[in-house]
User: Which sequence fits this backbone?
């Protein structure tokens, strides 16, 4: 490594170490606010130890070389809640601190296991489903806790709104004012200048000014400590290791069970923070990282840190960005940073003894006000009013009840708002009458005439979304309304298309059971299309399909509509019956028996079997076909995918007429289904008919023009049905 690179890494390591050592003391002050000085020093040891180990792990194992892994202040309020409860308990004095430290250890190990498992099972994306208003409300609540904790650290009083008056007592008001003033100064400088070095420089300036003032007033360190401006000198000793073997015999394991909720909250929040910051690091460093790998690395790191009695640590994009800007993507930066933290840990008694409590409080107040401004004031325009109301509700709940209760309230409100808003979405995506829906079956004229009169008895409802208790009754009421109005009173077939339905719950199943009862009373046949197997199984379990002539299931909407058409045509007499004779078919199509009789000799009879192809896609077309018996399917073949049937021709119909006149390549293939008798009219034969039987040929041409117009209208209807 060149000297220049080494100096860059040294500069980056020093700056990041200064920032994170300050953060470590701030978190320790928050965790043990209102507790004896001995406990704060134990907390400082935990945080410094965690900072050093996490920095080393990030430097060696994370995907981006300059990644900084460190304790996060955003997790502290959750842990502080547990520590405050232990501090207020009736445990023996010798058991309080070991129990507090054990709760930190258990939380860190639990969070590490959670992070590792989430990464191992590739579930990183699931953490991002936490509603944004809940995250915003959480950080706003953290901001309030930071402000109150800053006052508590400065004055030695408790952390709560109820203690606000104690911070303004005459004997400690000067400490509160100093903390608030320094905190606001840090915030103003940071917001005004916006450079990474502003706050560290301001801390050094305030520290120098403080000791200058002590010298000016002629106060030594002992006198300053007696006035509350400095910690007591005899208490200034760190606790290494944080948890000693003898402590395990003293701590109360029963107090660790109530902290399991905090363990889960820290685990989920740390995963969320890590994933958000990993995404941000990718943008800042212009690199690609594996979120699941980062989760596993950080999980193992926290398990190891927890076994040492340490605090939960995750990636931090701000420090990673600073390290990358100063020294580039070098692991040496993080290694130097880890070494400097170890030096601070070794010099802990001297360092802790000279830091005034109001300065630590100012750092917390600075962070707290910044959080409140960011998540309450600035983000208010970025979210709907109802989401902002959730943020405020969480903030109030955290202020007057507690942090975990506020998060639970926020999650509950977010779910409630989701249910309300989602239930407002229309369950019926689109509604189509039988007249407007395009049929894929081409039938003889008599069948088309019958359907033209009777197809209004078919109604199609395309459903969408997740059908659940919030939308089931709304859906049923909408269908009832359609059955009771106008043409709905004469409906005989109701097609419910589930293609765009993701799933349905038991309430929706009950709604469909009730709909089937209505259908039975109305002699209405329900046809369900596009139904997934899971949804079908749920309906079947409730006996939905058990009624004779009850609901019918078809794979696609087109299949369902075709079945309804066939049901209408069932047992209706037709003029053209399947057979081997062309004359009656041609007479009915043209409408002029004499012209049909004159043209029959020009047609060629083809007896086809199942699977035969009349023609294939891409072939040059020089003939049309009349189906006297059987059916034929028009098949579109595209690439390597499965062929798709787009039209079905029954007996008594004509196909391939366009190619007779244009000679263009066939745009689809035609396959025979079953057995069929087909008559072909080629271009040479048609030209011969024009010369030999001009009147009959003219009548046939007029029929073809009508047929093309009808099919163009049908194509337009099909296009409109997709809009």
Assistant:
């Amino acid at each position: 490594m060149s000297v220049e690179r080494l100096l860059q890494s040294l500069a980056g390591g020093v700056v990041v170490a200064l920032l994170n050592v300050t953060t470590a003391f701030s978190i320790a002050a928050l965790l043990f606010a209102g507790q004896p000085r001995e406990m704060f020093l134990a907390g400082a040891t935990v945080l410094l130890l965690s900072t050093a180990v996490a920095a080393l792990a990030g430097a060696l194992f994370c995907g981006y070389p300059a990644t900084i892994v460190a304790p996060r202040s955003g997790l502290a309020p959750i842990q502080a809640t547990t520590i405050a409860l232990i501090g207020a308990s009736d445990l023996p004095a010798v058991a309080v601190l070991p129990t507090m430290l054990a709760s930190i250890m258990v939380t860190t190990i639990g969070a590490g296991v959670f992070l590792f498992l989430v990464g191992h099972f590739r579930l990183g994306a699931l953490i991002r489903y936490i509603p944004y208003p809940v995250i915003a409300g959480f950080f706003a609540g953290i901001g309030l806790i930071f402000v109150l904790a800053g006052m508590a650290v400065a004055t030695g009083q408790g952390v709560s709104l109820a203690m606000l008056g104690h911070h303004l007592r005459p004997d400690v008001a000067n400490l509160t004012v100093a903390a608030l003033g320094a905190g606001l100064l840090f915030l103003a400088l940071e917001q005004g200048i916006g450079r990474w070095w502003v706050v560290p420089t301001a801390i050094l300036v305030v520290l120098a000014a403080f000791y200058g003032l002590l010298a000016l007033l002629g106060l030594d360190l002992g006198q300053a400590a007696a006035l509350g401006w400095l910690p007591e000198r005899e208490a200034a000793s760190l606790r290494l290791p944080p948890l000693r073997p003898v402590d395990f015999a003293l701590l109360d394991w029963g107090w660790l069970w109530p902290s399991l909720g905090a363990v889960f909250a820290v685990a989920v929040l740390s995963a969320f923070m890590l994933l958000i910051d990993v995404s941000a690091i990718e943008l800042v460093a212009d690199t690609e990282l594996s979120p699941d790998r980062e989760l596993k690395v950080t999980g193992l790191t926290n398990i190891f840190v927890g076994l040492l009695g340490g605090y939960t640590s995750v990636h931090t994009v701000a420090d990673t960005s600073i390290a990358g800007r100063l020294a580039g993507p070098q692991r040496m930066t993080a290694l130097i940073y880890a070494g400097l933290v170890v030096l601070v840990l070794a010099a802990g008694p001297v360092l802790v003894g000279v830091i005034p409590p109001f300065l630590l409080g100012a750092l917390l107040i600075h962070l707290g006000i910044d959080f409140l401004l960011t998540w309450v004031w600035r983000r208010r325009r970025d979210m709907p009013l109802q989401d902002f109301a959730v943020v405020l509700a969480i903030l109030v709940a955290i202020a007057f009840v507690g942090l975990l209760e506020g998060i639970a309230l926020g999650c509950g409100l977010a779910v409630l708002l989701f249910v309300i808003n989602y239930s407002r979405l229309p369950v019926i995506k689109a509604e189509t009458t039988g007249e407007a829906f395009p049929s894929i079956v081409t039938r003889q004229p008599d069948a088309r005439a019958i359907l033209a009169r009777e197809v209004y008895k078919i109604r199609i409802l395309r459903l969408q979304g997740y059908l659940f208790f919030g939308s089931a009754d709304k859906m049923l009421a909408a269908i009832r309304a359609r059955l009771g109005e106008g043409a709905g009173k004469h409906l005989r077939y109701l097609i419910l298309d589930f293609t765009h339905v993701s799933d349905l719950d038991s309430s929706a199943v009950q709604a469909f059971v009730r709909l089937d009862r209505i259908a039975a009373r109305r002699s209405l046949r329900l046809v369900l299309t596009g139904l997934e197997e899971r949804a079908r199984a749920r309906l079947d379990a409730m006996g939905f399909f058990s009624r004779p002539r009850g609901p019918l299931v078809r794979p696609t909407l087109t299949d369902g509509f075709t079945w309804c058409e066939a049901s209408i045509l069932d047992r209706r007499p037709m003029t053209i019956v399947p057979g081997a004779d062309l004359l009656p078919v041609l007479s009915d199509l043209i409408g002029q028996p004499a012209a049909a009789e004159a043209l029959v000799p020009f047609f060629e009879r083809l007896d086809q079997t199942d699977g035969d192809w009349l023609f294939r896609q891409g072939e040059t077309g020089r003939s049309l076909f009349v189906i006297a018996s059987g059916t034929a399917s028009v098949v579109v073949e595209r690439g390597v995918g499965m062929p798709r049937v787009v039209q079905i021709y029954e007996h008594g119909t004509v196909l391939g007429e366009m190619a007779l006149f244009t000679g263009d390549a066939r745009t689809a293939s035609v396959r025979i289904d079953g057995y069929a008798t087909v008559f072909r009219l080629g271009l040479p034969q048609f030209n011969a008919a024009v010369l030999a039987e001009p009147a009959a040929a003219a009548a046939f041409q007029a029929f073809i023009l009508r047929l093309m117009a009808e099919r163009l209208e049908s194509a337009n209807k099909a296009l409109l049905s997709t809009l």
Summary: Residues 2 and 701 are 90 Å apart (CA to CA). Residues 3-31 form the longest helix (29 residues).
